[in-house]
Amino acid sequence: MPKALLSDRRRHTHAIHRIAAPVPTVPQEYVHLRETDAILVTNWSVLGSDRYAVTARWPEGGIYGGSVPLLLTQTIRQSALLIVHAELAVPVSAQTLIEWMDFNVSTDFYDPKNKPDNLFILLTFKPNNPRSSRIELSILSEGRLVAESLLDYSWIAPGAYRRLRGEHGDVAWGESVPPAPVPPHAVGRAAGHEVLLAASGLPNRWQLRTDVTNRALYDHRVDHVPGLVLIEAAYQATHALTGPGRPPVRVMSTFDRYVEFDAPCWIDAAVVPAPDKGIVRVEVTGVQNGERTFSVYMDCAG
């Protein structure tokens, strides 16, 4: 990831004007969503060899509640999925996996006055192997670069995925009652159903709440906790640790193993040395059955 977010990206602005006429509707299966109001991407176009453009629109409120981190991670996820299926011929039946995801975002993008109407996402795909690709994204609002992302995507055939998951491929869906949430304001959320953390009785440790009625995070039945949920949990843990007024400007996520529904997952957060002045770095880790499942570094402004 480049350190300077607001670098000279005029070539990106020129590329925007090459986007083709709008596609009437982005197929829901391309972004793995059933709820139409959860779909943020609106159009796509081929710019050249391994380069693509996607347009997106962020709604007022709605299913994502106006959360910039949640909207941003969903925009990255949906843009990558759209191109993987629409242009790279990956079957929609394949299981797609995010192995790691980094992104950074301009601090002033959190200002409500700068809320975007339309976004342009420029993507470059660099194959790692026949079933994996590194994806670079640049996100522009009104021609201005506001965020960048780098992630590794891979995909696996349904049969191979079933063998990989074994007994975890068939889970009890929505039968368990999640523990009580911490107060929403403590994690930067407005309502209890948005909260992903429950008290553990230990400082800076929480239990992950897997409330599958949360439509913003669980659009359809899945056999493990989605990566999007884990990043949102890391954001909430960071907010609980640092307090309000410190939005994340860089997020670095690594997913080591699947987080399952049949055992508690513990979320730990700690402030660690930051690489730059004016930044608070928080390390968030998930532990399940005594093993680390994921880790997220969040660099927060202020």
UniProtKB/TrEMBL annotation:
Limits of the A-factor biosynthesis hotdog domain: 30-148, 186-242
Leader peptide range in chain numbering: none
Gene3D superfamilies recorded: Polyketide synthase dehydratase
Domain of life: Bacteria
Pfam families listed in its UniProt record: AfsA (PF03756)
Protein name in the entry: ScbA/BarX family gamma-butyrolactone biosynthesis protein
Lineage of origin: Bacteria, Bacillati, Actinomycetota, Actinomycetes, Kitasatosporales
